Amino acid sequence: MHPHDVLETLNGRRNLKQLHHALSEIEPGARVSAFFRNPIYGPYAVTGTLITLAHGSLGVAGQTVETGTGARRPVPELFALSQATDNPPPPTVYSSDADTLPALHHGDLVEAAFEQLSYGLFTLTGLVIDAPVGDVLVLGGWFLTERTLGRAPARRLRGVTVLRSRTEHNSPVPNRIHRWPEPTPED
Question: If both were cysteines, with which of 8, 31, 41, 74 could 78 make a disulfide (CB 3.0 to 4.6 Å apart)?
Answer without folding.
Answer: 74
